[in-house]
User: Which sequence fits this backbone?
């Protein structure tokens, strides 16, 4: 029992340190002037990698001390989660018809979406998205998706972080079920708390990695002179997505003053606000049972916040488009 309590204390301390350091460097990355953006990006990527490897290391150590039969059960659970993840990832959007356009592929669908197929390198845009965005906004979205292809290192790192999250989450889910069957009382509670904190560390790490990938893709569009157009497109998509049904988007038109929007985005992020957002993003989405894990997949894959909050994306676009220096 004492060993699990010590492990819980160490895990909480590790999580708090990771959360604090990530918040500070993420603020700098968004333009907080603590260090340069590139230095902040490198620090965040290192923190995300360390935060993902730490839980996996402990999971491997725990598995090594288990009976061979139980190791097989856990390995089966982990492999099943990987298979579920990649089968859903490969599915992508459901296109009724696909045709090639000017440098990209159009997917006939009522879903507001654009994405890069990492296997073929093709960029897809849905007909619903083309129906609500204007010419420069569409070009900005295409440049954003192209940015994912350019930043291949981030894509590879995102795969590593996602895999680490899957291992940790599957281990937590399998252990939660095992403890229900084999253990009771304070020991079971202590073990689950330790595993939950490890999951929070892994979730925080993969969230950081995925957010950074989106930010870097945004910057690719901004460097090409489409920062304002991308900001306008993002606001429209967030607004229309809040309707809850893509069919309603056909009856709504959103007008955005991108210049004023980016001017107002300069002061939206603070270290404390970032820490609170990362805290919620990591603690609220860490699965505690197999049911929680499956619910995450029912909603579309990894149960983590794959995209940064809109105000943070606008803050970085504001800096990249020159509004932060005026």
Assistant:
């Amino acid at each position: 029992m004492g060993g699990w309590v010590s492990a819980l204390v160490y895990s909480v301390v590790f999580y708090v340190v990771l959360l604090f350091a990530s918040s500070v460097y993420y603020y700098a990355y968004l333009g907080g002037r603590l260090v340069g953006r590139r230095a902040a990006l490198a620090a965040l990527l290192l923190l995300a990698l360390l935060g993902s490897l730490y839980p996996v290391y402990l999971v491997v150590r725990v598995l090594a001390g288990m009976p061979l039969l139980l190791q097989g059960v856990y390995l089966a659970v982990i492999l099943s989660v990987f298979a579920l993840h990649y089968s859903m990832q490969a599915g992508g959007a459901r296109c009724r018809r696909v045709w090639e356009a000017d440098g990209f592929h159009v997917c006939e669908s009522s879903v507001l979406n654009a994405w890069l197929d990492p296997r073929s390198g093709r960029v897809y845009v849905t007909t619903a998205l083309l129906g609500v965005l204007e010419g420069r906004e569409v070009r900005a979205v295409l440049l954003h998706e192209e940015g994912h292809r350019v930043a291949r290192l981030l894509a590879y790192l995102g795969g590593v972080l996602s895999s680490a999250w899957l291992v940790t989450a599957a281990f937590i889910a399998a252990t939660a079920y095992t403890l229900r069957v084999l253990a009771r009382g304070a020991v079971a509670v202590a073990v689950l708390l330790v595993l939950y904190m490890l999951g929070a560390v892994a979730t925080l790490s993969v969230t950081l990695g995925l957010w950074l990938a989106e930010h870097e893709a945004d910057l690719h569009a901004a460097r090409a002179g489409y920062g304002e157009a991308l900001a306008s497109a993002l606001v429209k998509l967030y607004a229309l997505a809040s309707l809850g049904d893509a069919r309603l988007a056909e009856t709504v038109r959103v007008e955005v003053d991108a210049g004023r929007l980016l001017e107002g985005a300069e002061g939206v992020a603070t270290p404390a606000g970032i820490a609170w957002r990362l805290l919620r993003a990591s603690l609220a989405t860490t699965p505690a049972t197999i049911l929680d894990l499956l619910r995450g997949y029912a909603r579309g894959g990894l149960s983590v916040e794959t995209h940064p909050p809109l105000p943070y994306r606008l803050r970085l676009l504001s800096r990249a488009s020159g509004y932060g220096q005026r």
